[in-house]
Specification:
CATH class of chain B: Alpha Beta
Helix content of chain A: 10-25%
CATH class of chain A: Alpha Beta
CATH architecture of chain A: Roll
Number of domains of chain B: 1
Largest sheet of chain B: 6 strands, mixed
Distance between the termini of chain A: 36 Å
Largest sheet of chain A: 5 strands, mixed
Strand content of chain B: 5-15%
Order of helices and strands of chain A: EEEHEEEE
Helix content of chain B: 40-55%
Number of helices of chain B: 14
Oligomer: heterodimer
Structural class of chain B: alpha/beta
CATH topology of chain A: Ubiquitin-like (UB roll)
Chain lengths: ~60, ~325
Amino acid sequence: MRVILRNPRREIEIDGRRRVHALLAELDLAREAHLVIRNGVLVPGDAELDRDDVIEIRPVISGGA
Amino acid sequence: MKCRTCREPAIIELPRHNANFCSEHFLQLCRRQVAKAIHDHSMFSPDDRILVAVSGGKDSLAVWDLLVELGYKADGLYIALGIGDYSEESRGYAERFAAERGLVLKVVSLRDDYGYDVPTASKATGRVPCSACGMSKRHIFDKAAVDGGYDVVVTGHNLDDEAAVLFGNALRWDVEYLARQLPVLPARHGFPRKVKPLIRLTEREMAAWCVIRGIDYIIEECPMAAGNRHLGYKEALNALEEKSPGTKASYYLGFLDRMAPLLADIAAVGADSVRPCARCGAATGVSDDHAVDGEIVCAFCRLVERSSAHAPVSVDLIRKKSRAERRATVEVESR
């Protein structure tokens, strides 16, 4: 699957199927600090992502106070 | 995963509520949390004129959207901070959001209206960029609200923001800052009332609100904020939250319930210690006072004086690389 990461924007390829929480763990990304979006729709942690999916992992932390 | 309310497929899990939600019931939860914050802290009434501090990011656009949805009258104010392409892009998001919904967005430009920008102010004053930026924004939002006849300024500070600031203040035991870290700062001495309706919602929830509502916002991090201390506090709190969901809410909301009342006397003392600035007339805290040619001049006017006299400085001279950028570089180099 194609995975789009942000901040800065970049893309990586992941082989095979994954559940959302497994993908985040594999990339060492905190669940509390990211949203996972498939085709513009949010997907929860137990959703299974397919080989052909295009996934955006969007960080949600901003630095202003 | 099923929605706790309707048992339809969920699109988001919220461990701190031990629940999952579909789009419709997640949005309902957010509306209720904002309405509760507004009610519990007497933030404003439907008759009040509201000015929303808009950055083009998720929180400010989400809070504006939520207030309009809840039936409040709210205009926006965007400040062009002069942080290179980041400012240009964020302004575009704010302007498109307002135009698509027929909302009023006012714009103030640091460079055009005051003769400086954030990178230049940082260099000219020796302040970290976030400090120069925050001071500029506070002054300009206050002035715009007072000049425009608004009753209240709304900011998009969320639960993560407030918990991180509380964490930093507690690490330093900065009692005066702790005493003032409230969701409502009442109007006083020419300052407008300032409120934070998102204190019961996390950053992740606000980003989800924007995705579900189709709100485009600037996702990239401010290049000036990369690696700042505040982000480190958020990462630390999120590490705790992952192990013990609900930690951030109990930490900050517990502070408001049980600790802030004990600090009320300290907050009241600070509120009276202000004098008018000889240049702009704005009230300035005694601790910020500084005599210039025998006059009391506020910190903002001193910043403007030094920054506008300085040659413009580019963003790249000031910024640090974020952790994500460093990691992206490693990813590329390792292939």
